[in-house]
Amino acid sequence: MTDIADLIEPLVAFRRDIHAHPELAFSEHRTAGRIAEQLRLLGLEVHEGIGRTGVVGVLRNGSSARCIGLRADMDALPIDEQTNLPYASRNPGHFHGCGHDGHVAMLLGAAQHLARSRTFDGTVHFFFQPAEEGHGGAREMVREGLFDRFPCDRVFAVHNWPDLPAGTIATRPGPIMGAADKFEIRLEGRGGHAAIPQDTPDAILAAAALVQQLNGIVSRRVAPTASAVLSITQIHGGHTHNVIPEAVIISGTVRTFDPQIQDRIEASIRQMAAGVGLAGEVTATVTYDRYYPATINDAEAAQEALEAAATVGEARLAPDPAFTSEDFAFMLQACKGAYIWLGQAKPEGSAPLHNPHYDFNDDVLELGVRLHVALVERHLAAGK
Questions:
Q1: Is the pLDDT of residue 382 over 90?
Q2: Residue 223 burial (CB < 10 Å; 0-12/13-18/19+)?
């Protein structure tokens, strides 16, 4: 029987091919096609077009009714790659800057090994998910009946983590990734000559006052014992030096773990915008979008993941959640499970996620495959 170590060289080649041909949200046609092809070669039952471009492979063995789901995300980021690697992106403005190419390779490797070893009793569902980067591919798969068609006792997702050294695996019960909200505030006056400001409500002045107030929400309206982030990331307004613009747009993001804190911050943004609008004689319109909920691990599933991780690498209890977001949260709202970090930092250091110089560390591919296999073998142990 082929050992996992023997699978790694072709998996590296597959990963680098995916890296060279990145595809954005809901456009992962080549990627999904290559995945489906590989799963069929392994003899798995294959379902395509779930969540628009998602792929599910089903592997059954034995007689147990128990089942487990494993997820890998497939999409790339709208970034220009700057690695100068021989397998760098051939699609300008498309880049696997978050390691989803590595996640696909690890999950395929686990499917290859389990299809040959059959060291489990039950059903494994391999979920290859589109559109994780801000477009809610997991939500689309769940809406289309993912867990009705492919029921799971547990669902797990593994994500590479450059903040942890290679060889380490970490997770935690409860919150592990933040809820992601985005907001846009449009301040609208009339516009007019900059030399006659008394006749023109000043949207820029109102925007400046509002930015100052918004940056005080977390420090003054959220308890010091709670965790939250509010960042202003864009201000747009004006076209020339002698015109007070008609409108200014402010936008940004909010990250939280607690829905009550989330409610408090959204209400504060709306209150402050209305107050500044009234004081500055401009109209303030707030658009607030809670696009990803917090990623909340089930306590038993997190413990199960740590126990499986300890059999293949150095398992760590993550002390704190991260404020970055993850749409695997939608799967965890529908099924008990856990999100797991796989350390990938090299001794000399690694570029962070979403950085144009980032690359997935192929040295952790084998550990990632072994982790997926351990999760299956632990949950679907024969005779359990």
A1: no
A2: exposed
